[in-house]
Amino acid sequence: QTQFVESGGGLVQPGGSLRLSCAVSGFRVDDAAIGWFRQGPGPEREGVSCIHGVTNNTKYADFVKGRFTISVNNAANSVYLQMNGLIPEDTGTYFCMRTLRISGQCLYRSKGVGSWGQGTQVTVSS
User: Fold this and answer.
1) Considering just the CA atoms, what is the radius of gyration of the chain in Å?
2) 74-94 pLDDT, tens per residue?
3) Which of 8, 65, 68, 121 has the least CB density, counted as fewest CB within 10 Å?
4) Is residue 30 classed as helix, strand or coil in its secondary structure?
Protein backbone atom coordinates (compact mmCIF):
# COMPACT_ATOMS: atom_id res chain seq x y z
CA GLN A 1 0.00 0.00 0.00
CA THR A 2 1.37 3.38 -1.00
CA GLN A 3 1.93 5.69 1.93
CA PHE A 4 3.67 9.02 2.54
CA VAL A 5 4.74 10.09 6.03
CA GLU A 6 6.07 13.62 6.36
CA SER A 7 8.05 14.89 9.33
CA GLY A 8 10.54 17.54 10.37
CA GLY A 9 8.39 20.64 10.49
CA GLY A 10 8.28 23.08 13.35
CA LEU A 11 8.44 26.70 14.46
CA VAL A 12 11.50 28.57 13.28
CA GLN A 13 12.58 32.20 13.20
CA PRO A 14 13.08 34.01 9.90
CA GLY A 15 16.42 33.07 8.44
CA GLY A 16 16.37 29.67 10.10
CA SER A 17 16.50 26.19 8.63
CA LEU A 18 14.49 22.99 8.70
CA ARG A 19 14.92 19.60 7.06
CA LEU A 20 11.72 17.85 6.06
CA SER A 21 11.59 14.10 5.56
CA CYS A 22 9.17 12.02 3.54
CA ALA A 23 9.17 8.30 4.24
CA VAL A 24 7.69 6.41 1.31
CA SER A 25 6.23 2.92 1.25
CA GLY A 26 4.61 0.98 -1.57
CA PHE A 27 7.09 1.82 -4.32
CA ARG A 28 10.75 2.64 -4.76
CA VAL A 29 11.72 6.31 -4.85
CA ASP A 30 14.55 5.53 -7.27
CA ASP A 31 11.95 4.45 -9.82
CA ALA A 32 9.57 7.38 -9.47
CA ALA A 33 9.24 11.13 -9.29
CA ILE A 34 8.43 12.70 -5.94
CA GLY A 35 7.39 16.23 -5.20
CA TRP A 36 7.01 18.48 -2.19
CA PHE A 37 3.90 20.63 -2.07
CA ARG A 38 2.73 23.17 0.43
CA GLN A 39 -0.64 24.48 1.47
CA GLY A 40 -0.96 27.94 2.94
CA PRO A 41 -4.14 29.65 4.14
CA GLY A 42 -5.90 29.01 0.82
CA PRO A 43 -7.33 25.72 -0.46
CA GLU A 44 -4.72 25.08 -3.15
CA ARG A 45 -1.53 23.11 -2.75
CA GLU A 46 1.38 24.55 -4.70
CA GLY A 47 4.42 22.73 -5.96
CA VAL A 48 7.61 23.58 -4.11
CA SER A 49 10.14 21.13 -5.51
CA CYS A 50 10.30 17.73 -7.18
CA ILE A 51 12.90 15.17 -8.15
CA HIS A 52 13.00 12.43 -10.78
CA GLY A 53 14.35 9.36 -9.03
CA VAL A 54 15.89 7.86 -12.16
CA THR A 55 17.55 10.90 -13.75
CA ASN A 56 17.96 12.88 -10.48
CA ASN A 57 16.73 15.96 -12.32
CA THR A 58 15.21 18.45 -9.93
CA LYS A 59 12.81 21.34 -10.16
CA TYR A 60 12.23 24.25 -7.81
CA ALA A 61 9.53 26.87 -7.62
CA ASP A 62 10.88 30.36 -8.20
CA PHE A 63 10.02 31.40 -4.65
CA VAL A 64 12.39 28.78 -3.15
CA LYS A 65 15.24 28.69 -5.65
CA GLY A 66 18.58 29.06 -3.97
CA ARG A 67 17.11 28.37 -0.53
CA PHE A 68 15.67 24.84 -0.68
CA THR A 69 17.33 21.61 -1.76
CA ILE A 70 15.55 18.34 -2.51
CA SER A 71 17.31 15.00 -2.22
CA VAL A 72 16.62 11.28 -2.01
CA ASN A 73 17.98 8.43 0.04
CA ASN A 74 17.33 5.23 -1.87
CA ALA A 75 18.38 2.99 1.01
CA ALA A 76 15.86 4.67 3.30
CA ASN A 77 13.32 5.05 0.49
CA SER A 78 12.88 8.63 1.58
CA VAL A 79 12.90 12.11 0.11
CA TYR A 80 14.14 15.19 1.94
CA LEU A 81 13.71 18.94 1.63
CA GLN A 82 16.44 21.06 3.17
CA MET A 83 14.99 24.50 3.78
CA ASN A 84 17.38 27.37 4.47
CA GLY A 85 16.79 31.09 4.71
CA LEU A 86 13.19 30.58 5.73
CA ILE A 87 10.84 33.54 5.46
CA PRO A 88 7.34 34.01 6.90
CA GLU A 89 5.82 33.36 3.47
CA ASP A 90 7.15 29.78 3.69
CA THR A 91 4.65 29.07 6.45
CA GLY A 92 2.28 26.26 5.62
CA THR A 93 1.70 22.52 5.70
CA TYR A 94 4.14 20.59 3.56
CA PHE A 95 3.23 17.35 1.83
CA CYS A 96 5.07 14.89 -0.37
CA MET A 97 3.49 12.94 -3.19
CA ARG A 98 4.40 10.80 -6.13
CA THR A 99 4.20 12.96 -9.23
CA LEU A 100 3.93 12.57 -12.96
CA ARG A 101 7.10 12.63 -14.99
CA ILE A 102 7.90 13.15 -18.64
CA SER A 103 11.13 13.08 -20.64
CA GLY A 104 13.25 12.63 -17.54
CA GLN A 105 11.67 15.55 -15.73
CA CYS A 106 9.31 15.62 -12.77
CA LEU A 107 6.06 17.54 -12.86
CA TYR A 108 4.07 19.29 -10.13
CA ARG A 109 1.11 17.01 -10.65
CA SER A 110 0.09 14.07 -8.54
CA LYS A 111 0.30 10.71 -10.26
CA GLY A 112 -2.80 9.73 -8.32
CA VAL A 113 -1.06 6.86 -6.54
CA GLY A 114 -1.83 6.74 -2.84
CA SER A 115 -3.48 9.34 -0.66
CA TRP A 116 -2.02 12.56 0.65
CA GLY A 117 -0.39 12.16 4.05
CA GLN A 118 -0.96 14.31 7.10
CA GLY A 119 1.75 16.72 6.10
CA THR A 120 4.14 18.52 8.39
CA GLN A 121 3.54 22.05 9.62
CA VAL A 122 6.18 24.71 9.05
CA THR A 123 5.76 28.02 10.81
CA VAL A 124 8.22 30.85 10.24
CA SER A 125 7.75 33.62 12.75
CA SER A 126 9.71 35.81 15.10
Assistant:
1) 13
2) 999 999 999 999 999 999 999
3) 65
4) helix
